[in-house]
């Protein structure tokens, strides 16, 4: 059961914050040689499906994205 509170603006802001968080983490990770090495064998599709940089925080944020 999903509770409807009418806080659409707040939900939109939370979604925007999650998107920004994931984008920031991904951008920072792309500059790190270790991340480049860790993702070297991934296909472009796998990289697209990766939430943010792939860390635990990004995985959690990816799970929340769209489900709030």
Number of strands: 0
Q: Report the portion of residues in β strands.
A: under 5%
Q: Radius of gyration, rounded?
A: 14 Å
Protein structure class: mainly alpha
Determine the N-to-C terminus distance: 13 Å
Give the overall average pLDDT. Answer: 90
The SSE string, one letter per element, is HHHH
| Number of helical segments with 4 or more residues | 4
The largest sheet, given as strand count, sense and whether it forms a barrel, is:
none
How helical, in percent, are the residues?
Answer: 55-70%
Overall shape: it is elongated
In the predicted model, the low-confidence regions spanning at least 5 consecutive residues are: none
List keywords for this structure.
single chain; 68 residues
Explain this structure to me?
The protein is mostly helical and 68 residues long. The chain has a domain at 21-64. It is built from four helices and no strands. The protein has helices at 8-30, 33-38, 44-49, 56-64. Helix 1 (8-30) runs antiparallel to helix 4. It is elongated and about 45 Å long. The protein starts with 7 loop residues before the first helix and ends with a helix.
Summarize the model shown.
It is built from four helices and no strands.
